[in-house]
Amino acid sequence: MSAAPYIHVRERATDKRTTTTAPSKKNPLRIEQAVPARRAKSQQFGLSTAEFLAAQAVLFTVFAAASFMASVLVGNTLGELERRKAVDAHSQVRLAQADMVRLRQRYDRLNSAADIGDWASARGFVAAYGIGADNGIPTKD
Fold it and tell me: Residues 87-95: what's their mean pLDDT?
């Protein structure tokens, strides 16, 4: 920033320094003081109104673009995280379904009457009635 406007205003202020006239009965002592010049309302920060508005518009555009880019980046990152979670969940569902098929097969195998009878006879149990019994009458050894 240049000091030229300040020097210019200062020089103008020094030209209008206090002037005195000799006191007389007609003219009492008259002192004029220099009033510092004020900036026009159209000038802010050393810029004209159009330049100031253009600078504000550029600043707004930069902040809006930065906010947009940041939100897009965050949105894409969160979307990718959710996609990966969905892929992992899908693979876990497939593993769980395969485990359920194996467990269902084991359950069916353990609940069949033939398998239960084989298991019982392998361990020395004798059926009192039903499968393995002679005409429903228990046998005596």
Answer: 97
CB atoms within 10 A of CB 116: 14
Distance CA 133, CA 34 (A): 131
The tokens for 85 are: 């979670």
Task: Tell me the CA distances in angstroms from 32 to 17, 29, 110, one per residue in order.
Answer: 7, 10, 117
In whole angstroms, what is the distance from residue 120 CA to residue 114 CA? 10
Question: 21, 7 in Cβ contact below 8 A?
Answer: no
Determine the 3-state secondary structure of 109 from DSSP: helix
Residues 38-42 have a mean pLDDT of: 57
pLDDT at 46: 79
For residue 120, pLDDT beyond 70:
yes
Question: Most confidently modeled of 58-67, 107-116, 130-139?
Answer: 58-67
- Residue pair 13/36 in contact (Cβ under 8 Å)? The answer is yes
Rounded Cα distance, 33 and 100, in Å: 99
CA gyration radius, the chain = 51
**Nearest to 6, CA basis, from 41, 48, 44, 36:** 36
